[in-house]
């Protein structure tokens, strides 16, 4: 019975589908709502960065999750998601790094999940249940 629970490939598949599948709707929302890209561009501008970098969020939240979901260059896709989350935390959430909600949850719980889940995928790879295992 316990031997059936030793399935690394299935565990990697579940992690890939969860992290990428939950991040993808964030990117699709930004893709369908151009005003959000304008807001991101303005936020970049306040940091002295070019506003064109706002389109990088589409790479980190649409292209990278799709790569990871299907298992094509999953490590690269996961690394792009890590970079995306680091930029998001730096630009928008720095003031919440040490903050907690009333229920005791870390204020950056969701961002932390995406960041560290994607980082785990960088090291684990796609597993064999992928279009192109790495």
From TrEMBL:
<feature type="transmembrane region" description="Helical">
    <location>
        <begin position="13"/>
        <end position="32"/>
    </location>
</feature>
<keyword id="KW-1003">Cell membrane</keyword>
<feature type="transmembrane region" description="Helical">
    <location>
        <begin position="52"/>
        <end position="72"/>
    </location>
</feature>
<feature type="transmembrane region" description="Helical">
    <location>
        <begin position="79"/>
        <end position="100"/>
    </location>
</feature>
<keyword id="KW-1133">Transmembrane helix</keyword>
<dbReference type="Pfam" id="PF07681">
    <property type="entry name" value="DoxX"/>
</dbReference>
<feature type="transmembrane region" description="Helical">
    <location>
        <begin position="112"/>
        <end position="131"/>
    </location>
</feature>
<dbReference type="InterPro" id="IPR032808">
    <property type="entry name" value="DoxX"/>
</dbReference>
<keyword id="KW-0812">Transmembrane</keyword>
<dbReference type="InterPro" id="IPR051907">
    <property type="entry name" value="DoxX-like_oxidoreductase"/>
</dbReference>
<protein>
    <submittedName>
        <fullName>DoxX family protein</fullName>
    </submittedName>
</protein>
<keyword id="KW-0472">Membrane</keyword>
<comment type="similarity">
    <text>Belongs to the DoxX family.</text>
</comment>
